[in-house]
Amino acid sequence: MTDFNAAVIAEFRANHGKVGGNFEGAPLLLLHSVGAKSGETRVSPMMYLPDGDRFLVFASKAGAPTNPDWYHNLIAHPDATIEVGDETVDVRAEELPRAERDAKYAEQAALYPGFADYEKKTDRVIPVLALTRR
Question: Do 104 and 59 meet the contact criterion of CB atoms below 8 Å apart?
Answer without folding.
Answer: no
